[in-house]
Structure of 16S rRNA (cytosine(967)-C(5))-methyltransferase:
Amino acid sequence: MTKQSYNIRNIALDLLMRISDQGGYSHLVIDQMLKKHQLEPRDSGLLTEIVYGTLQRKLTLEYDLNTFIKSKKKIDKWVKWLLYLSFYQMKYLDKVPDHAVIHESVEIAKRKGHKGIANFVNGILRSAQREGFPDYQDINDQVKRVSIETSHPLWLVKRWNEQYGIEITEQMCQTNITHKKVSIRVQPLRMTREQLLSRLENSHIKASLSSFSEQGLVIEEGNILKDETFQESLFTIQDESSMLVAELMDLQEGMTVLDACSAPGGKATHIAEKMNDNGTVFAYDLHEKKAKLVKKKAEELGLTSIQSAQSDARKLQETHAKQLFDRILIDAPCSGLGVLRSKPDIKYNKTKEDIVKLSTIQKEILHHIEPLLKNEGKLMYSTCTVDQEENEEVIKDFLEKHQTYRVDPAFFDELPEELKNSSGRSKFGIQIFPQDINSDGFFMTRLVKDS
Ligand SMILES: C[S@@+](CC[C@H](N)C(=O)[O-])C[C@H]1O[C@@H](n2cnc3c(N)ncnc32)[C@H](O)[C@@H]1O
């Protein structure tokens, strides 16, 4: 395919159909498509923005569309997606004039369907242009309004409202539909973050120092993935909340650490770096393929203290019958409701039943791993989700059943100032909401085992 022969909106429509039909992870599907079409950088930016934006706002756009539909006639799925992506551009993208959006969408409708469909699409888009989009303040029920205005399913907004109250819930939902800056963690055995900062400046990438990890940088401007420092494996892309996990593990050189759910290795490599690659990190994952990713990542970063292998965390007592650990990390499989900014499909696919199943697995993992911790050792539990059943409730259940454990009081003293008095703090740990430090939503706590 030559560079000029593609049509961005056509590709966007294909992608959205594929993501909705196959339930595919949006970021993987988009990456594949970008590689296949060899788009110009400006076009790949626009394509990503249209696909992510439309997905992110799907429920809002669906609500908008319903206000313009007068008949009860069934509308084909692809026509709906075409209208959603057109609405998205008209509402949220200044750089594309409405008339251009309408013209292109009508052409696509003609090509993919027939003249009748093109007329229908034209009619709807022109009504929206003339009348404007609905005002959500007219929705009296607050929970329903937040659900529609921020495009989160009603069950989830209801659940968050019950758990955290409407104010936190609304802030969280609003934050979830904003853009998140990329952050990176320098490999400190290769370079200091100040040195990396000045290398990035030379390639016109603007970055600032993270306040949550001494290894962290926040990218303010520029594409870090295209920079040669990325090819040289001088850093790892990692969210700032995620960086806090290893930062709060109270690690020291020479320790023996178990990372029971480690793929793709973001935290295992951080742990090794924090110990100056001096110690041992046993990194496991349930899936063989994923465990190999940890090995690959450690090799790329030049870290030799990580040993990775496949195992179900619930069976590690058999593998390590005679070995106890100074530190254990359980970065548990979870519903991922804290990472909706980068993976919007999660909010449409996860269910309450998934949460129940996951919390059972989380409790099982904790229960089976716990005997592997030394007396006075510390166990870190974290998830990238915002849900009490997978977080506080799991820890509460664990502490009730394992009386030798308690939440380490020093953990709270070590929290960054920004989080010390946050509303997410409880006696079980800290729930970081995406709006707190403009990061992913994460839960973390540190337990200590008394002798
Ligand atoms: C949140 S991710 C871990 C992310 C990783 N710690 C990092 O920082 O890159 C959870 C991982 O747990 C793995 N997993 C799920 N169930 C497991 C089990 N029973 N035992 C071990 N790993 C499991 C998943 O395959 C997934 O890779």
